[in-house]
Hints:
Layout: E1 2-6, H1 10-21, E2 25-29, H2 38-41, E3 45-46, H3 57-81, E4 92-96, H4 99-114, E5 120-122, H5 124-130, E6 140-144, E7 148-149, H6 152-165, E8 169-171, E9 178-182, E10 185-191, E11 194-197, E12 200-203, E13 222-232, E14 243-246, E15 249-253, E16 258-262, H7 276-289, E17 298-308, E18 315-318, E19 324-328, H8 338-351
Parallel strand pairs: 1-2, 1-12, 2-8, 4-14, 12-19
Antiparallel strand pairs: 3-7, 4-6, 5-6, 9-10, 10-11, 13-16, 13-17, 14-15, 15-16, 18-19
Amino acid sequence: MQIAIIGAGVIGLALGWRLAQGGAAVTIFERDQPGQGASFAAAGMLAAACEAEPGEAALGTLSRASLALWPDFAAELEAASGQSVGLRREGTLLVALNRDDAEKLRHDMAFQQSQGITLEWLTPAETRLREPRLGPNLAGAISSPQDIQVDNRRLTQALVTAFTRAGGVLHSQTPITGIATAHGRATGVISAGNTHPADLVVLAAGAWSALLDLPIPRPPIRPVKGQMLAVQMDPADPLLRHVVWAPRAYLVPRADGRLIIGATVEERGFDDRITAGGLFSLLDGAWRALPGIEDLPILESWVGFRPGSRDDAPLLGPSELPGLSLATGHHRNGILLTPITAEAMATSILTDTPDPRIAPFHPARFTQAQPHPHLERKIA
């Protein structure tokens, strides 16, 4: 079976790796360099527990199932690539800086615990035992031990290696301009006027998925801009060891001392400008939780584009065009959902049997008169 995947982010690469392991001949086409889109910009938080929200039951179930796959997925990928992906298991702290923050966290915690999620409320003193350099105004915190992290940039590099070692072919700087069709089905991809034949095409181009010229309505994917930055801690004596969610920023420590601070959420299309207001809001939010950052040098700032759908859930499965499948629209959960997306999509493709885990995320939910019952929610 010959498969063409459009997009070499973590979703396209992981799916390509699984398909190649299953015996398919897989070629991935990337418009830029592998993993330079949302996969590069992400923070690598695997936050299936603390991000669980009412109205997202199906997405929460998928996220927790994917989180459970992560330790074995990381170990297998490291063995296949010979590269570390930086998986860390210290857990996540959601901190409250005043009474209102604490009440909101407790309210959210009640819902999350009703879903069977393990969480613990910490007093300010208990919180400081875990992270003594947090700010003076702590009102408590939630400990989420299941929410861990991975180094997303290392992850991308490891996936490239594992995919090519499994026999996959990767074409960088090869933008796809269209889908070749014959007799009412996709038969390949078109780049620079040349057609590359395929038995199946998978669109996994993230925020750029809606820009491709298709013979069917384009998937309802839009870019959701996020600005982020990194500061440098002392690796031998870091200010933080846990991932910390503060009311106005999150902070993600890396083993090399980098501290990732993110992220804005902006509906500005593909505007890649870094703004003073964006960085100020992140630094102010981070400083209120961790005052010691004011003495740290800024290493880098960047912009990423999350692939958002109309219900903030992914599109996984066959499109209206036979021979074309979608694996896109993961919004802020692309890294988290990588293992289950790759496994479920590969199983569905190789066995020609839909995987029930991704059934609620079929692209057809956006072409039907009524939204899918498992995904109906209020859009802010």
